[in-house]
Amino acid sequence: MQTFLDRSAQYIYSQHSHNQLSKVCIVIPSRRGVLYFKQALAQLSDVPFLAPDVLSVDDFVMQMTGLRQIDQVALLFELYDVFKEIDPNVAFEKFMTWASTLLNDFDKIDQYLVDAKALFSYMSEAKALERWQMQLGESQKDKNLKTDRTDRYFKLFENIFSVYQNLRNRLSEQGLVYRGMAYRDLAENVDKYILEKDKHLKYYFVGFNALSDAEERIIRTLLKRRDFAETLWDTDTYILKNKDQKAGAWLRYYKEGDDKNGIPPLYNKEWLWETDELVKGTKNIQVIGVSNASIQAKVAGHIYRSWNAEKEEGEKVKEENAQTAIVLGDENLLVPVMNSLDESVKDFNITMGLSLKNSMLFTLIDSLFELQRNLVEFKTEDGGTVRIPKFSHRQVVKVLNHPFLRRWELMKYSDKPHPKRRSPQPLSDGEGGIRPNQFADENSPLHRRGVGATDASGEVLEHKFYQKSGYEEWKYLKQFARDNRKNPTESEEILWEKLRNKQLGDFRVRRQHSINSFIVDFVFLKQNLIIELDGGIHEVDDNPKYDEYRTQELNAEGFRVLRFKNEEVLENVDEVLKTILYYLNNITKQSGIEVSDENSPLSRRGVGATDASGEVNTEALNPIRKTLREITERNRVFLSSKELLEIAENDSLFEVIFKHWNNNPQNAIKCFYALIDLLRDVYKESQDAVETEYLYQFYLILQRMEGILEARKDTVTMRSFKTFLFEFIKQTKIPFESETDESLQIMGMLETRTLDFEKVIILSVNEGTLPQGKRQNTLIPFDALSDPQFNLPTHNHADSVMAYHFFRLLQRAKEIVLVHVLPSDTYGAGEKSRFLLQIEHELAKFNKNITLSYPTVKFIAGDEEREEETKLEIQKTDDILAFIEKEITEKGIYPSHMNQYLDCSLKYYFSKIAGIAEEETVEEKIGVDTFGNWIHKTFENIDSEFVANGGVVEKEDLETVLKNIQSYLKQAFKETNQGLRAEEGMNYILYQVGETIVKKFLRYQLDNELFPLELLDVEKTLKVQFVAQVNNKTLPVKIAGRIDRMDRAGGNKIRVIDYKTGKVEAKDLKINIEDLAENLLIDKEKDKFRQLWLYKYMVLKQMTSKNGLTINGIKLNEVENEVSSGIYSFRNIEAGLLQQSIEFQEGETIQDFIFESEKYLQNFVSDLLDPEKPFEKRKDVENCVYCDYRRICGR
């Protein structure tokens, strides 16, 4: 394929001898085009020769004028100084909001050689009002068109011409220019800068389109001298002769001129060149629609891999100059595209800069500003006047979870080099990705597989330790772990047999379990203890160093590692077991873990030991992890700097990032300098060249900002400092351009000027992107832009420019892929670009050699089909049945367990067997659960006082409680709502609601109870046993429950009471005798009825047992006491105690009630342990909306 630059180089080379070429100047629109042209020219000669001057148009202008271009940030301050001279009251913050736009307008004014005085006069108040009145007509002329808004608008432009003039003068005195100023200077002084110097023999302008007025004047001036300049155009018959095609609008003007206005064509002897590639060339065009923007990058990566595969298989012959381009309509796709390329793709070049604003470093900087901005002040606990600023937990967690700080954390807590890993690829729903989750209960059969939830086939759904590995690495680790379990070594098999047979008691262990990037032999997750068995291979080569590194990595995760040689297990396994048990008991003793109690706080928090009070044992954890756990587990909504430093034990990182800036930019700069010092080693360790360059560029920015602050102490506030710093960051780009000619080029649309590629992938071919649409970043109104006397570019100009770049890129390409985002529900979003419609309905008809196709994009949802996921069910394996039997015979069946199983057996499995718990979050306002816990705790504290004082409650006692209710409410709130404040916002309202409920209930008791009332016990746990026959086994099944309150009213009536903060009505607690058999274990809505039934059953069963029921020294029996169970509903207090009146048959005795109850319990246990009945989803989905496990189920 002969490219346009190949042809241009060949033509120019043929026009001059080698001696003459060194005196030729060739001007090309872009620097990338300069590189390609030089390469094309060099290939034309077998002998060396002095090269001509080949310059981009910007370099040409600056070289000809000899001026220095000022950087944008310095220009902003120069502009501000000029404004201050004219308007001393201008605020820097407001100035920054429109300063860049104004400078852009000045640049356009100069590039298009506009009479600035005439333009700003046109925009003045008098002229504008005159035009508006003419447009409105005679009927509106007498109306006052001036408003406050128009006054403010015109005030802005009153002095802009003076600002424009003064800025230019100020820069000229320093020998500086902005870009447009240099263009104007050259265009108005071509004789001075070019013709009089007579530096070059001839000038060639290659591949231009849509010239600015300054560029056009420069070229026309040079063309007037005979054989002194020549233009080479890249045009095609399709865009040039099709009058309706915007892409050729400017080229037609340059070829034909404008006879009416006496403007000649913009070439000398002949028009060079016009091709017919678009109307005759063979092209395979694929138009691909995708559901969202991010998928475009994956599509580009996939297509490029497939093209490479074709080359490797010999299906395509690679031409010498054949290249591929991935062109980004939206340059924000640069990083996703880079990440989508296969690791085998080494030879690619990026011909565009990546803004510092797109870096991970910027997200950290932004998070630190957000952290400081969201400081909240609190009064001291004693109500003093001193206010303590505190950070919000949201910003603290966001900062501490930043990848750079996590990388620093890993590096600091391991002094060995870390292996270089490719960054993990993000996973999202719908693309086969699975999001990480935390699993709490390690004691279930599920975890013996070493993972979290599984689908019906036993395949992994989610993974507990997915933090550092990419998805592909994770899948490999899981498969490798499964293979290891199937093929254990002899020592592993011996130790596993001992461990699985409970020779260490109830300590739960997993084998071949993956933690981050490692697979460990055995792990006791509850105790954070890892056991490794090492063969002889561990003692050779670098393996000892790797084992040491691996141990340090695991230590950083909070694990202790014990290593044994295979021989130790083979020769004396009992000694190995004793050693392991010693460490397990030591860890358990230190942390207060109750090994046999899986209902302890530990089992609901996943890994990490806790003490007996539920506090986390953080001795082995680093400051970041300690802080994150402290925030989550203690619900720390706000934390002061002092509190954070105490948790982190004055760690150096915390001293830097959590120090108050006090609205002082100098403090912010000091913080950033200190952060750079901390992160420098992290960047070196990771050997990430791009991020390292970002860090260096940020350091340079800080130095500039420090100098500015020093010079302008009274000018820069914290707000303006942030605005200015972010402007600095936005303009700072890391250039990726190189001098290499790789086979893959990644570039923006403007970088493609003059370049040709055999294969092209263009992304974001949507309206609003290609072309950009009607967006105009300017302060100049449209009527002024479009007025012929100024001839400034509008959106129509931008549309025609983009159309030319687009179709010129297709001109010589053979394989073309155009990717666009499909329409969404949002109005106007995802509209297909007009360029695609022109190809489909116009170009394809002109050129019969175009093959147009519309491939679709499909993503495979992992190893299993999505249909299988929707049919998720869990078979009751022998392990699972054994686990359930142990649970119901040792801990018992609670009413909540029964109700959960009957509501949704799969939910029961996830919660009670798999131990999958909802990830803990910090509550900023009183939630439904915490509200209920608070009310319950209030009454628990009140009732406990009565029980402790003998249990007898007189009416006067309750009246005293009511008078002092605030102290009870505050104490209970403090106990149940750690970190929450009730002084303001929604919490204040909810606190008042809770206070009203408590007072209303107490008043109800005062009016309706029979005094004296005898409180027997509070928060009483009952547990009784019955014998069930299941699967040819006799099981001693326990029924258990925790009762809110037991009292005795009217002398002998024992009431088992449950408090409900939700609304309960009498109908919820009734079932007709004839419907009992059908509904008791079937009706999902009768959960409260079942709860009261089991409460009554447990009390009567205990009373009739051999030992009877004794509460607080009071022996209760069924003969002297009548038993009932009921609910107080705090949203239905006026209904009183809602009591359940269950009878299996009329006139039944207590023994009959117990006997019939146990028949139903037998049926429930039989169903629960039926191996033929898998755990499955409930059929109706209405109640799945608020279920914690709906994502696992696919609902």
Walk me through the structure.
This is Very-short-patch-repair endonuclease. The protein is of the alpha/beta class. The chain folds into six domains: 156 residues, 3-Layer(aba) Sandwich (Rossmann fold), CATH 3.40.50; 97 residues, no CATH class; 176 residues, P-loop containing nucleotide triphosphate hydrolases (Rossmann fold), CATH 3.40.50; 152 residues, no CATH class; 198 residues, Endonuclease, Chain A; 302 residues, no CATH class. Helices cover 46% and strands 14% of the residues. It has a seven-stranded parallel sheet with strand order 11-21-10-22-23-9-24, sandwiched between helices. Strands 26-27-28-29-32-33 form a six-stranded mixed sheet, with helices on both faces. Strand 30 and strand 31 form a beta hairpin. Helix 4 packs across helix 11 and helix 6 packs parallel to helix 11. The longest helix has 26 residues. It is elongated. 34% of the residues are buried.
